[in-house]
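Researcher: Here's the sequence for the chain we discussed earlier.
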Amino acid sequence: MLKTASLRPGGAGPDGASASLAGLLREWLPGQRWFAGKDRPVTDLDIVSMTELFPGCLHVLLHAAHTGVPGPDGTPPPGDCYQLLLGVREHLSPRLGRALIGRVQHGPLAGLAVYDALRDPRAAQLLLERLRHPGTAGPLRFEADVKVPVPAGLLPRLLDAEQSNSSLVYGDRFILKVFRRIQPGVNPDLELPGALAARGCTRVPAPVAWFRTTEPQAATLGVLQPYLPGASDGWALALRALASGDDFTPQARQLGEATADVHLALAAAFPSRGDADIRRTGEAMTERLEAAAHCVPALQPFVPGLRTAFAALDGCDSGPAAQRVHGDLHLGQVLRSGREWFVIDFEGEPSRPLAERRSAQSPVRDIAGMLRSFDYAARQRRPWRPEWARRCREAYCAGYAARAGWDPRRKHALLRAYETDRAVYEVLYEARHRPDWLSVPMAAIERLAVRGG
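Model: Thanks. This is the structure I predict for it:
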């Protein structure tokens, strides 16, 4: 394994490989869907670790530093750590053209083609073999649930859907999520499904195998789970219903029931640590609003009205007890197979610190995320159909109340605050990644700021 090495252009790593890769990665990273620093120029790249996973494939953890406003103590703005699997070959076949990062011009890798190995079926199969046979490779640890056999020879395919990570499907039987943005600690997408499976909750596919690193700090790198062939995600189903004019309220109600089932199982698996600090919650939401408005000027006229949603939390009913939650629940995070809903992707919002994502929070946060998602779906067609969204929202809350024993609609101040916080997050996300979609959360911002819900 290579020790930490500078990737600044002209820098020299222990064997020069870092300098060889510097220019290629600096140009390639900002174009990746999962790269979080698109709006912040990269100042430095540093290799955290480099391990030969198998011949011709390097596992790399890379830290990217960005320009930005220093902290109050003068410290530079924090950067991000990314996971890369880099293939290295002399000749690249035409079928791997999309995977090409570039050809190295100097150093020990001079003349070799470097590419995204997750797009290489051979490399993807060898990665699965690592997971099938638990063991180590340098600082990497491959582990598995030995009770669940994974057959050899499953053909891989990389999912091209927009997401903040990369996913490989093997033989339509398993799906491997490779986390791209890495933070120290246990990723909730391993921790929560594992705990739910132990509680007998069937709404969540259980982890089958996973891999992690021990250096420089312990962190989860990827999780293999059963794949649900023939399942459709909630977003696709909602858009299909809108296009055909079909009623989606029965599915929305059942989805509310599924959400409550998961929340109840999470509360049992991770005993409550008491009520949420509602005042601190409002202060944190206000801080996020101020930061977002600084980055997205279109938000600024609505800041005074949005603040009222957070100020209303001071002294209001704190609602249900704080507990572990999904953290980023929306129609794209649920699957329907047959007549059942399944909840996936428990990573939470990747832009938020891992400690926050693993903390106990109000389940209203998840509910607000799904309610916002119905609005997103309704706005994908012209003319906008607000009644469709309203009916789905009502049905979802009714289904949740029937299972959970409390009605989110009766927590108006709490629900408005979490919806507002979610809409602020959406504005920042769309401004950075999909500017053409910015009008969708901005319409909610205007509604929440002017009419209060």
